[in-house]
């Protein structure tokens, strides 16, 4: 956009000048100018093609010719202008423009406009662009006014003006938008030091932050704020009050740190919300809103993830599996133009060299395979080991969660016992990936495949841990549900007895309300789950930050400062500096996001915590990367892995949707806390709302729609649609593959043709040698003539001006002379008229690329 | 653009005027341009600057400078980038990427750490892969065809200012 802005600025000044000078021109000139414009556009087209195709001459000459051509044309134009202005000065009846002329003009203007809009995509010099642009703009400006001379003059002018304003506004807005992108400079700085792959992590982080911000806005705006503003205040109800037994310690830091005490009974958690159907003067339907927000969080995230995936897929139209051009790509695209740091550049050089060497080795030994059995055995062994690790970690977590339940029943549990689950999970997350890496060394995969495997395994580990954690939590929940029934009765009886006793004392007075802190209450499993998630998230944040601090920063400091007095070179030797672990960080981020999605239904405040976390980690990690990491020795491609990350995110989104959906659909909500208390299932809110708030017929419609007789066909239809689309896309793919194959075939064929030609040429020559005696005897004088004509043309590149304009194929012969020098006697045997010289017998027209006559040169020829 | 002009200005504050309304004709020599931090580490910096300069010698006027960064910006279309990439890799400006160009590219990319056989092998491979018309060197059509299929050409062939 920068450039665009520049263009417009300079254009504006330029067009003003031009406009001022040309405003005096008359209408009539338009016809002449049209011609000139056409010529100009032709020339422009030529100019456009020229740099791509000019064959032998250096560009300089090319430029000179086009430039001189332009100048001359300008001169011509001026001449014309003068002549026409003198001629047409008397005929100043501007109103006499006919409809056709108007239409023509309109077309012209449109054409010019198109030119302006596509200007940016043309490989011209800026000077030329500017001049052409100014010209076109002046033209448009002038004749737009002229077009309006008819009936809808004012309307047209107004429309044009508005369109211009709109364009300007859009441009300003775009500029504004790009300036609003946060951390652009920071990411750029990182990018210049570490290349695009590390930056891709930060861009991913920023994207995540955006998504979370939207989620946070949803939850905060639609659930938390209304509850705080309009809901019943703290202490008014049992569910909003800290129980009597806990009140003494409710403000202690250690309790708060575990998210017990006052935090547990705050709007951060599910249990705080009331089941009042409407709250406040707005009659805000909080339970309904809570439910809808919970669902829309998932809906929105799914939509965003899928949309960005689709966009990524669109962007990479050329899929990387086409391995025709391994070396060419390495040659031309391996350098990352973003690198601006010497160290990174060194690393990049090294990695490019190694990658070249690798592919050379691959190329040389692609069909060699040594001891396949051993390798296979090792791979199987490695996989078995890793599966053992995964199972072990899963069991460990299950065991620990179970144990923590017994700990929670004991009152005097220590700090370790209370936080055992989180500690164990964090430790597993810290130590398993390196273990996997060592095991993966056994397998001896290609590094890129190895990376994928590694990522997949770590992902499986995280996922397994998460799910065992969930299962254990489910057990817990079921236990609590059983407990709840008991408590429900107790609560009922206490309330009843309290009522009875007060009735017994004084029958006329209303019973004094029981202090909400004293009411016995159920365990409220939703809040428990929410607390677990929040604790997990917080400990995850802490572990991440501490690892960065210790693993990167302290290590870097140590290496940096102790290096002066150490027996070996620390920087190059064992500890060295840490690299930035992209895959681990991305996975951590994805995993964390999964937890947020799962937990946000039970703890609305979790998203807020996550937003804070992402914000801090953006700054913290940027700082850590810049201060204490070294660029990668081996850089893996950012563009390809981007969709891989998104795929992981989608998977984990889906997996985190499952347990939430399960709890919503099939577990009864606890009876005395949360917005859905007192209902059998959480989704009863919708039915309630439909029945009570909508008119009767809507309820009827809903009941029809919810009928299984309708839902099953709908699902069937959807499945059919998916099947159909799938088969269509498959067909497309097949067609694509076929086309690719065809192209390959064609390529091969062409290559073969080349080779064959080289071999057949001699035979042709022989044949012609045989034939020549006859023809020679027949057409001797003609031959001589032809020779005369041909020889000057072939020897000197300079051509007569008359011929230069004619289609000429011989510059190609000049350029390719080294490869294909047509044997001279071809001319002898086949005397061709000079005009139709192009198709030589030994040199057919269709080249790999359109090597048409070089128009720019053809025109420019006469001038030197 | 203002940022660009700022950058252009600060490279030679005594030569470049701040005010461009009078359209002065000022050029900066290549030495100044290639010392920009964005270009400093690039192995093709000379070629980049040369292919964007109007006289082919490497000195850039402000228009050329803007031109360069507009082509190397993220917004530029693939075709345009391909055209200039071709120019950049075409060391002897004969409008073909021939073997000597390839060798030069390779040497710049690897800082001459490959052996001569390896280089010739790689060059042969490249030509074999990308050369569609079998003339032993890459024309622009070959190059464009090859580069349009490259997955990370767009992501790597740009400079952010």
TrEMBL record, chain A:
Residues 35-44, 51-76, 743-753, 777-793 have a biased composition (Basic and acidic residues). Keywords: Membrane, Transmembrane, Transmembrane helix. Residues 1-13 have a biased composition (Acidic residues). GO terms for cellular component: plasma membrane. Residues 821-844 have a biased composition (Pro residues). InterPro entries: TMC, TMC_dom. Signal peptide: none annotated. Residues 21-34 have a biased composition (Basic residues). It is found in: Membrane. GO terms for molecular function: mechanosensitive monoatomic ion channel activity; voltage-gated calcium channel activity. Residues 1-99, 743-864 are annotated as: Disordered. GO terms for biological process: detection of mechanical stimulus involved in sensory perception of sound; vestibular reflex. The chain crosses the membrane at residues 207-229, 288-306, 380-401, 421-442, 454-474, 601-623, 644-665, 701-725. It comes from the Eukaryota. Pfam families: TMC (PF07810). Residues 524-639 form the TMC domain. Residues 855-864 have a biased composition (Gly residues). It is a multi-pass membrane protein. PANTHER family: TRANSMEMBRANE CHANNEL-LIKE PROTEIN 2 (PTHR23302:SF17), TRANSMEMBRANE CHANNEL-RELATED (PTHR23302). Belongs to the TMC family. This is Transmembrane channel-like protein. The gene is Tmc2.
TrEMBL record, chain B:
It is found in: Cell membrane, Sarcolemma; Cell projection, Cilium, Photoreceptor outer segment; Cell projection, Stereocilium; Cytoplasm. The keyword Chaperone does not apply. Pfam families: EF-hand_7 (PF13499). GO terms for cellular component: cytoplasm; photoreceptor inner segment; photoreceptor outer segment; sarcolemma; stereocilium. The keyword Acyltransferase does not apply. One of its GO terms (molecular function) is magnesium ion binding. This is Calcium and integrin-binding family member 2. It comes from Merops nubicus (Northern carmine bee-eater).
């Amino acid at each position: 956009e920068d450039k665009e802005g520049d263009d417009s600025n300079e254009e504006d000044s330029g067009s003003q000048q031009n406009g001022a000078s040309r405003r005096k021109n008359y209408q009539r000139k338009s016809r002449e100018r049209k011609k000139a414009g056409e010529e100009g556009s032709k020339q422009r087209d030529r100019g456009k093609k020229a740099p791509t195709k000019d064959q032998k001459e250096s560009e300089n000459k090319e430029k000179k010719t086009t430039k001189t051509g332009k100048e001359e044309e300008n001169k011509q134009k001026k001449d014309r202008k003068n002549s026409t202005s003198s001629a047409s000065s008397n005929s100043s009846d501007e109103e006499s423009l006919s409809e056709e002329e108007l239409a023509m003009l309109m077309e012209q203007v449109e054409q010019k406009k198109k030119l302006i809009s596509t200007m940016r995509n043309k490989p011209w010099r800026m000077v030329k662009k500017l001049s052409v642009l100014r010209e076109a703009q002046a033209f448009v400006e002038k004749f737009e006014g002229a077009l309006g001379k008819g009936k809808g003059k004012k309307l047209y002018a107004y429309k044009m003006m508005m369109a211009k304003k709109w364009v300007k506004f859009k441009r300003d807005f775009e500029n504004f938008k790009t300036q609003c992108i946060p951390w652009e400079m920071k990411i750029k700085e990182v990018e210049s030091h570490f290349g695009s792959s590390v930056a891709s992590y930060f861009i991913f982080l920023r994207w995540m932050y955006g998504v979370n911000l939207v989620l946070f806005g949803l939850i905060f705006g639609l659930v938390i704020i209304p509850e705080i503003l309009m809901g019943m205040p703290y202490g008014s109800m049992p569910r909003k009050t800290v129980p009597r037994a806990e009140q003494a310690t409710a403000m202690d830091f250690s309790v708060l740190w575990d998210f017990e005490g006052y935090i547990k009974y705050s709007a951060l958690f599910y249990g705080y919300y009331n089941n009042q159907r409407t709250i406040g003067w707005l009659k805000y339907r909080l339970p309904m809103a809570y439910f809808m927000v919970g669902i829309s969080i998932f809906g929105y995230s799914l939509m965003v993830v899928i949309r960005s995936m689709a966009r990524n897929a669109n962007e990479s139209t050329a899929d990387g599996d086409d391995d025709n051009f391994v070396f060419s790509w390495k040659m031309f695209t391996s350098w990352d133009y973003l690198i601006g740091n010497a160290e990174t550049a060194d690393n990049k050089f090294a990695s490019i060299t190694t990658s070249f060497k690798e592919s050379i080795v691959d190329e040389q030994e692609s069909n060699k395979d040594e001891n396949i059995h051993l390798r296979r055995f090792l791979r199987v062994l490695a996989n078995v080991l890793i599966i053992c690790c995964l199972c072990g970690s899963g069991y460990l977590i299950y065991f620990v969660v179970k144990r923590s339940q017994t700990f929670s029943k004991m009152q005097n549990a220590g700090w370790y016992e209370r936080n055992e689950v989180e500690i164990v999970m964090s430790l597993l997350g810290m130590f398993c990936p390196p273990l996997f890496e060592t095991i993966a060394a056994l397998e001896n995969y290609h590094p890129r495949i190895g990376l994928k495997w590694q990522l997949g395994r770590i992902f499986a580990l995280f996922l397994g841990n998460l799910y065992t954690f969930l299962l254990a939590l489910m057990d817990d929940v079921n236990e609590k549900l059983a407990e709840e029934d008991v408590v429900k009765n107790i609560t009922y009886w206490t309330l009843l007895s309290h009522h009875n006793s007060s009735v017994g004392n004084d029958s006329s007075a209303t019973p004094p309300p029981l202090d909400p802190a004293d009411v016995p209450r159920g365990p409220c499993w939703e809040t428990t789950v929410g607390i677990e998630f929040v604790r997990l998230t917080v400990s995850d944040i802490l572990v991440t930050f501490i690892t960065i601090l210790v693993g990167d920063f302290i290590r870097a400091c140590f290496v940096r400062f102790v290096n002066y007095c150490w027996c070996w070179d620390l920087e190059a030797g064992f500890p060295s500096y840490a690299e930035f672990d992209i895959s681990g960080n991305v996975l951590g981020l994805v995993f964390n996001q999964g937890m947020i999605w799962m937990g946000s239904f039970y703890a609305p405040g979790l998203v807020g915590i996550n937003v804070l976390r992402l914000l801090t980690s953006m700054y913290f990690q940027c700082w850590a990367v810049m201060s204490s990491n070294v660029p990668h020795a081996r850089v893996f491609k950012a563009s390809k892995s981007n969709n891989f990350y998104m795929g992981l995110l989608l998977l984990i989104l889906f997996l985190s949707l499952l347990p939430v959906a399960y709890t919503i659909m099939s577990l009864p909500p606890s009876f005395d806390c949360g917005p859905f208390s007192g209902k059998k299932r959480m989704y009863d809110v919708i039915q309630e709302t439909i029945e009570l708030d909508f008119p009767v017929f809507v309820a009827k419609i809903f009941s029809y729609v919810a009928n299984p007789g309708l839902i099953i066909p709908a699902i069937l239809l959807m499945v059919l649609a998916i099947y159909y689309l799938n088969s269509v896309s498959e067909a497309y793919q097949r067609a694509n593959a076929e086309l690719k194959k065809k192209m390959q075939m064609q390529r091969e064929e062409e290559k073969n043709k080349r080779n064959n030609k080289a071999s057949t040429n001699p035979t042709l020559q022989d044949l012609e040698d045989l034939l020549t005696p006859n023809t020679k005897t027949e057409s001797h004088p003609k031959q001589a003539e032809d020779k005369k004509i041909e020889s000057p043309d072939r020897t000197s590149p300079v051509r007569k001006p008359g011929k230069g304009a004619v289609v000429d194929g011989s510059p190609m012969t000049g350029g390719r002379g080294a490869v294909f020098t047509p044997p001279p006697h071809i001319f002898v045997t086949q005397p061709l008229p000079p005009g139709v010289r192009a198709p030589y017998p030994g040199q057919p027209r269709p080249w790999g690329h359109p090597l048409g006559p070089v128009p720019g040169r053809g025109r420019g020829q006469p001038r030197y | 653009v203002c940022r660009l002009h700022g950058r252009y200005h600060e490279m030679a504050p005594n030569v470049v005027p701040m005010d461009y309304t009078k359209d002065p004709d000022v050029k900066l020599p290549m030495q100044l341009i290639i010392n920009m931090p964005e270009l400093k580490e690039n192995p093709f910096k000379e070629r980049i600057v040369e292919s964007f300069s109007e006289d082919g010698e490497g000195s850039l006027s402000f228009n050329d400078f803007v031109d360069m960064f507009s082509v190397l910006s993220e917004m530029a279309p693939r075709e345009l980038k391909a055209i200039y990439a071709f120019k950049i890799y075409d060391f002897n400006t004969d409008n073909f990427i021939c073997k000597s160009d390839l060798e030069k590219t390779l040497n710049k990319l690897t800082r001459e750490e490959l052996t001569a056989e390896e280089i010739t092998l790689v060059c042969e491979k490249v030509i074999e892969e990308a050369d569609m018309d079998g003339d032993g060197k890459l024309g622009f059509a070959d190059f464009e065809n090859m580069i349009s299929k490259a997955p990370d050409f767009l992501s790597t062939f740009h400079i952010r200012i």
